Amino acid sequence: MLLFPTLAFLCLLPLLALAAEDFYKILGVAKDADDRQIKKAYRTLSKKYHPDKNPGDETVAQRFVEISEAYDVLSEDETRRIYDQHGHEGIKQHQQGGRPGARHDPFDMFSRFFGGGGHFGGGQRRGPTMEVRISVPLRDFYTGKDHDFKIEKQAICSKCEGSGSKDGQRDTCRKCNGQGMMIQKQQLAPGIFQQMQMQCDMCGGRGSTVKHACPVCQGARVVREEESFELSVEKGIPVGARVTFENEGDDSPDYVAGDLVVQLFEKEPELGSEESERTDGTFFRRKDTNLFWREVLSLREAWMGDWSRNLTHLDGHVVHLHRERGHVVQPGTVEVIHGEGMPVWRHEDGPDFGNLHIEYVVVLPDQMESGMEKDFWATWDKWKKKRVDLGKLSGRPEPKHDEL
Fold it and tell me: What start and end residues bound the annotated signal peptide (predicted)?
């Protein structure tokens, strides 16, 4: 009689396993992900779904618990091996079979990973803000692009989880009795004493000491590590804009990590090897939402017209410049092409663009051949006989003569 219920339960096991979401999927990593990738995923997701950042949202709170559970299993070699072989049911049996207290409190895990008390704010001391400067080409300010960058920062030692001890044990400091501070008296004069509070020199103000220091951090509880970040450069974002990565500054068991602030600057223009990097737009100059370009014309083109140019913009589209025959371009003329400038950053009414300013520079020949010189002189002499007043054409005010 017991055979049928047993067979039914065995048939339901695969369905129960499928009902629970895959731990790798929860963290968004591949099954062959290394420890560093798993830690990075937990770092990002646990901050995003922390209940303190999403008060009152039960769905987010549940997701935070799932992320913590997934990291708890995949961060340890033994439980990860069991999960890879037997799935959720194997982990459940392992937890019931001989690991008392194996499941960690999500906030306790967050506290060990980031320092502090497992919560954002809440009176916890905050670490310093880190600032870095990153330069990107003008093209990325125009089109928008994601950039990966690395920085070296202070991180809590993963070997000892920030305890500084090889065995995870810390003993109360005998000198300060766990206070971290010492009261010292100093005699200033007969019968006059001064009390000073000083940091304990035995424990360094921590209130506890270790007998066997961690071989990785040498008891310092923190290490220097290189960490990767992804920076999203939005279309039209201003030069000098500051992008904040919350709680991504230096980590410490003694305080909540501060922010990492990235300040954006424009990289000096240069011709790259890729086709997208070899455009006229690479050498545009930017001021706010406007772009500037200097176009060089020969004397013949400026005087007689009948020319055309194709400017390749930052995203590859072509801006056509031209003048009809007989259309004169004066040196220093600025042509404004509307809508061909920088995108307006976060424009509320949809995409909008500034203007492209074209300044025309006329290059005169160093010398002329005799035949060309005669032709030009004859043309000039004919034009001068029309009694053209160059003073009026230049726009200068007429000189005032003193009556005396």
Answer: 1-19
